[in-house]
Amino acid sequence: MGRSGPIFGRLLAWYLFFGAFFFPLMAAVGAPPPRYRDAGLSVEERVEDLLSRMTLAEKIGQMTQIDRSVASPEALIQFAIGSVLNGGGSAPSPAADATEWADMIDGFQRSALSTRLGIPILYGTDAVHGHNNVVGATIFPHNIGLGAARNEKLVERIGRATALEMRATGCPYTFAPCLAVCRDPRWGRCYESYSEDTEVVRSMAKIIAGLQGTPPPRDHARGYPYVHPWGRSVATCAKHFAGDGGTTGGVNENNTVADYPDLFHVHIRPYLDAVAMGVSSVMASYSSWNGVKMHANTYLLTRVLKQEIGFQGFVVSDWEGVDRIGPDYKNSVKLAINAGFISDLTDLVLSGQVTISRIEDAVRRILRVKLVIGLFERPMADRSLSGMLGHAAHRTLAREAVRRSLVLLKNGEGRGKELLPLSKTASKIVVAGIHADDIGLQCGGWTITWAGGPGNTTHGTTILEGIKASVSRRTEVVFSEEPDEHFVAANADAAYAVVVVGERPYAESQGDDPVLTLPREAVRTITTVCRRIRCLVVVISGRPIVLEPYVGAVDALVAAWLPGSEAGKGIADVIFGDYDFTGRLPRTWFRRVDQLPMNLGDAHYDPLFPFGFGLSMNIPPPDLSSS
Ligand SMILES: *[C@@H]1O[C@H](CO)[C@@H](O)[C@H](O)[C@H]1NC(C)=O
Ligand SMILES: *[C@@H]1O[C@H](CO)[C@@H](O)[C@H](O)[C@H]1NC(C)=O
């Protein structure tokens, strides 16, 4: 490998020097358009033709992904950058609408198209529960809630809706879905995981078919990336390969200790489903497996993922694919344009430490995806789709998803003593808790900003608004964020109280939590209200948290996860009995953190509520034939 270095070096220097003059010259004298532009040829023919025209600098540029905040036209053109992304919270302006997003992405595209070969960029975003960086987009429940709903058709529909909202802003690529199998809720990304159970994660991987479209079975080679070419689907990225949810103590990006069969059966199997559906890319995990960093793990990335599983899309990492910039790629220095990556990689190739075939493998895979999704034919945003952002039909779908994701954990002390369904005609009711009237808190992390945050951060319906819209006009609804004894005494005649409490938003390592206790104000609200008024407690959280001390004090208990922008209507649909509860725990609800990790099948299994638990109110399903 080392000895071929100088020869490659000279060849590449030649390419770098003359390539830039030669090809435009040929085009200028009226040569036919290059084969890679011929949509009549196969993707592979076009890839090979394009690859054969690229200089080393263009190949490395193609492998480079930069944040939108550093993507100046000069940078995009000078380095022939292949991909631009926005990290969580990175937006063209604070409340940019669909048009502003599309204008920005089209602007990057115009720079890319003006380069020598005119290879369009692939613009990516973390659309992990809807198109969540964009104000006004529909925010769906986070994955843990969808794992509770356990409905493949539902996630497929959510995938389609999310793809449309992304296309409304001109964005063709999402860093989703997260196929982590979270084995320890102390992990700050546990809510991005559908379940502790690999089978549930496998079935929820079906969201890929919604986002990308379903490949026609006959034409589709196993492992070949597929995105429906109609311009309303988006490329996806299954993440984080592999073992991200298995780290010791649930510490983010830490070490997963497992033998290969365990790693395969628990953490890798969902990737087989993703690859079979034509997933476009796979993100390497920053965690380690038995002490070896995943993104340096040639055995798992090359031997297992590419060769054995047959994956033919591209791997996103700080080495083979793209640089880690932005929140998901946190350790990156936001280097002016990543010059470090580009010059380091160039040096490594020129000195023979990285073979050109390795570079070409990566570039071939990236070009393949760009051609599959039709970027060369249709690089610009389709402005006719701008009305799809936050479309009413998508909000209705999100409301349905909320409804199906709710898990009823307790309902009174036995037959005849149920609190739910709640009466819509009580003369007075209490609503309490800081999560009851706050869009930001009900959406959680990865919402408008990277970590999410409280307040009126985007459009939606709060739980208080959902309750007010459901009860009779004569019902008095008394609300307090943090009720004290006086408030409760003054309203002790209320028929019932709905207490909405939970975790504050967080993302990634910042959400790692060794204690998993409710915030102090939440405990105070539960104990103050539930002592005097019959109460339903709705828990807004990204994972099971310590609840055992309070279960006896509450009359009814619902796990609502991180339900998103349509939480208000979706929760009201169920607590007032228009629909029954159908969600089942996608995770074991532990009693004490000293039991963790504790998953279904463990010898020391002694949960507060077991995996799969979920009560119902025995309400007959609504009669759809009459409507
Ligand atoms: C895991 O976390 C510990 C404690 O923070 C740290 O010392 C160690 O380096 C981490 N291991 C890996 C593989 O990241
Ligand atoms: C929240 O923001 C939306 C628009 O961003 C606005 O229509 C709505 O009135 C705001 N609600 C409150 C309570 O401020």
From TrEMBL:
<feature type="domain" description="Glycoside hydrolase family 3 C-terminal">
    <location>
        <begin position="406"/>
        <end position="616"/>
    </location>
</feature>
<dbReference type="Pfam" id="PF00933">
    <property type="entry name" value="Glyco_hydro_3"/>
</dbReference>
<keyword id="KW-0326">Glycosidase</keyword>
<keyword id="KW-0732">Signal</keyword>
<dbReference type="GO" id="GO:0008422">
    <property type="term" value="F:beta-glucosidase activity"/>
</dbReference>
<feature type="domain" description="Glycoside hydrolase family 3 N-terminal">
    <location>
        <begin position="55"/>
        <end position="369"/>
    </location>
</feature>
<dbReference type="InterPro" id="IPR036962">
    <property type="entry name" value="Glyco_hydro_3_N_sf"/>
</dbReference>
<dbReference type="Pfam" id="PF01915">
    <property type="entry name" value="Glyco_hydro_3_C"/>
</dbReference>
<protein>
    <submittedName>
        <fullName>Uncharacterized protein</fullName>
    </submittedName>
</protein>
<dbReference type="InterPro" id="IPR002772">
    <property type="entry name" value="Glyco_hydro_3_C"/>
</dbReference>
<dbReference type="GO" id="GO:0009251">
    <property type="term" value="P:glucan catabolic process"/>
</dbReference>
<dbReference type="InterPro" id="IPR036881">
    <property type="entry name" value="Glyco_hydro_3_C_sf"/>
</dbReference>
<feature type="signal peptide">
    <location>
        <begin position="1"/>
        <end position="27"/>
    </location>
</feature>
<dbReference type="InterPro" id="IPR017853">
    <property type="entry name" value="GH"/>
</dbReference>
<dbReference type="InterPro" id="IPR001764">
    <property type="entry name" value="Glyco_hydro_3_N"/>
</dbReference>
<dbReference type="InterPro" id="IPR051915">
    <property type="entry name" value="Cellulose_Degrad_GH3"/>
</dbReference>
<keyword id="KW-0378">Hydrolase</keyword>
